[in-house]
Design brief:
Chain lengths: 49, 242
């Protein structure tokens, strides 16, 4: 761990918040993509019948 | 093959299926290398101390926040002029990524500002135009969800995007227009005199590449999702009519 000195809280907070937001947008996008693909597959299967 | 052929949803889906995976890999590698390099292996600044490490998040996210809006502007114009649905859906897909980048830039800026400026926030030209850009992102997303007809939604959000572009450009050039406020000049410059030291510059470049590839991968994935949603909606309408 690098020596963050007197600003350890600020630097850690900035990294924590940013990584959390990045992970959230990736997770949300992946979840939406999977859900929509499943819904479309179901709709296409119904339509072909 | 013409660029416009990718406006065909089938061609777009086939092309992005090949590109999206490598974009995610490049994003993961560049972000891991850049952030680890910047956080663990760069020195503290003689004035800013360790808060200089926030630059690896703040600068790329602010850079992307502005440029994602510019990308939305271009795709909105393509929609308004050529009526390609994929371009309108790409703009819609980019907005949540843009709002995330803007939020990261605002929050990391505030966290850095408290120890360096003595305040989390100041009504400085660049900060204020960035906050307005954030509100425009939220308004843009709200407008898309408020209108049921997708073509009308695309038309109105495109107009909103044109108006919001003023603030996207202002947030980039506000420092040059007004010689007041707390925010310093650009950290990224081709001028060696103005640019930051190489020891910070190289990991920052890797982080910028990481943020760009992450955006590229996400916007491709989210545009594919929007195309699929549109297709599922069309099937539902046909089922109802049959």
């Amino acid at each position: 761990m690098p020596d963050l000195g007197t600003y350890a809280v600020e630097v850690s907070l900035a990294y924590g918040v940013s990584l959390l937001l990045l992970v959230a947008i990736v997770a949300l996008s992946v979840a939406q993509a999977r859900r929509t693909k499943r819904l479309l597959d179901e709709a296409e299967a119904r339509w072909k019948k | 093959m013409s660029f416009w052929e990718y406006a065909n949803p089938r061609r777009f889906m086939a092309f992005t299926d090949r590109v999206m995976g490598p974009a995610f890999v490049l994003a993961a590698v560049a972000l891991s290398v850049g952030l680890v390099w910047g956080f663990f292996f760069t020195p503290n600044d003689f004035r800013q101390g360790s808060t200089v490490k926030i630059i690896y998040l703040h600068v790329p996210s602010a850079f992307m926040a502005i440029n994602i809006w510019v990308m939305m502007l271009v795709t909105s114009l393509v929609w308004l002029i050529r009526r390609h649905h994929v371009s309108a859906l790409a703009a819609k897909a980019a907005a949540p990524v843009g709002v995330t980048m803007t939020l990261i830039a605002l929050m990391t800026g505030a966290i850095w500002g408290q120890p360096m400026w003595g305040t989390f926030w100041a009504w400085d030209p660049r900060l204020t135009s960035f906050l307005i850009l954030f509100l425009f992102y939220l308004g843009y997303m709200a407008l898309w969800s408020a209108i049921e007809d997708p073509d009308t939604a695309a038309d109105l959000t495109s107009v909103l995007c044109l108006v919001g572009s003023v603030f996207a450009f202002l947030s980039r050039y506000a420092v040059n227009f007004w010689n007041q406020g707390l925010h310093q000049g650009a950290s990224l410059s081709m001028d060696a005199e103005e640019n930051i030291s190489d020891v910070f510059w190289f990991p920052l470049l890797v982080c910028l590449a990481g943020f760009f590839f992450l955006f590229l991968a996400l916007v491709l994935m989210r545009t594919r999702t929007e195309i699929r949603k549109r297709r599922a909606h069309a099937i539902t309408l046909r089922e109802r009519a049959a």
